[in-house]
Amino acid sequence: MEQYKPREELEKDLAEMRQRSLELEQCHAEFLNVQKRYEQLLQSAPDAMVFVSRDAKIVLLNAQLAALFGYTEEDLIGRDLDFLIPERYRGRHRDNVAHYFEQPRVRPMGTNLTIYGLKKDGSEFPADISLSPLETEGGIVAVGAIRDITERKRTEDEKQRLREQLAEVEKLSALGRIAANVADEIRNPLTAVGGFARRLQKIADSDKERKYAEYIITEVNRLEGILRDVLAFSRTRSPLMEDHDIRGILDEALKTGEERYRQQAITVKKNYGEAAVIRADKEQIREAIGRIIANALDAMPQGGSLSVTTDREMVNGAPYIRIRILDTGEGIPAEKIEKVFEPFFSTRTARTGTGLGLPIAKSIVEEEGGIIRIESTAETGTTVTLLFPDLKSS
User: Fold this and answer.
1) What is d(CA 146, CA 245) in angstroms, rounded to the nearest whole number?
2) Does residue 254 sit in the same domain as residue 311?
3) The domain containing residue 71 runs over which residues?
4) What's the predicted TM-score (pTM) here?
5) Is residue 1 part of a domain?
């Protein structure tokens, strides 16, 4: 026969059940409160945060991560993490995820492990990521904080480029000093060889001897020209800065080539703008312009046109005097245009110079506070542009 509990026991059990129910409600309310605070903390985190399960599924994320990749939070919940990684890295990334869950550990940012993210629009960006394991009721999840390091990487790349440039400058400087010392040592004996060759030419008894002496003189003259250019390229200059109208300097530089214009059937065209005063060392600027003109004449052995113009141009919001020297010569192939300012580089198979004309011109112009640019198209000609601060607008 079934036994019934006394009323007092039933009332006691009911009171205990109500107490437990109240405790459960309080625990649930506390859980919801903690969950809300955690979500608030997650959403207020400065970094993009993602929670990933052992099978590489996204189980939780914050708004920063969704915005970083260009999605909504709903778009990403439950998706495979590979969805946010460029396809070429996905195979390796799956292995990395599996390895991480085998040995969960905290891995801070800045460990030189750069990953790449894939945005909704298809663009990629370099990222740094920190990882930490989190124990949950459903098992361990990996918590990742992700930062877009595009700007940092650009800065690091720029620093590396500047370091390489500095190393190159130091190397060229050392080579320049060595070349200058060697040139000084060679110049005196070379002058002596040239002098003796000229004497031999005068006292030679046969045409053959005179021809040999003439050959020696020609080569000595060529070597002396190389030595002059090497010394000019490597010397330290102390510019005498004065105000000059660039039009006068251009006229003087053009005048020195008059004989070559006639010999090579080259037409000279001048189109000067209004007064253009620059502050520079007149002799050095004239030398730079002279070397640019000589280079243009070398490019037109069968004749052509040499045009010199002056006007103005704004550079980064500042006014500059612009000088353009245009030739109608053979031009420079696109693959060689970046090398024309390198010492001893020449675009011509038959050497007509030392390959130092344009490098010397560039060195002078930049020491005078100017800018030099070159544009060219093979077989249509070359334009060298010089820019100097415009004193009239200062």
Assistant:
1) 58
2) yes
3) 45-148
4) 0.49
5) no
pLDDT tens, 209-228?
888 888 888 888 877 777 77
Q: What is the rounded distance in angstroms from the CA atom of residue 81 to the CA atom of residue 62?
A: 14
Domain total in the chain: 3
CB atoms within 10 A of CB 291: 22
HSE, side-chain direction, 13 A CA sphere, residue 222: 11
Are 257 and 294 a contacting pair, CB within 8 Å? yes
**Which CA distances in Å does 20 have to 16, 23, 31, 214?**
6, 5, 16, 118
Written as six digits, the tokens of 166 are 């500095």
Q: Give a yes or no: residue 76 inside a domain.
A: yes
The amino acid at residue 334 is: A
Answer yes or no: do 328 and 361 share one domain.
yes
Residue holding tokens 């002596």?
192
Tens-digit pLDDT profile for residues 133-160: 988 777 888 888 888 988 888 888 888 8
Tell me the pLDDT band of 234, cut-offs 50, 70 and 90: low
Which tokens hold the place of 47?
């970094």
Whether residues 228 and 246 fall in one domain? no
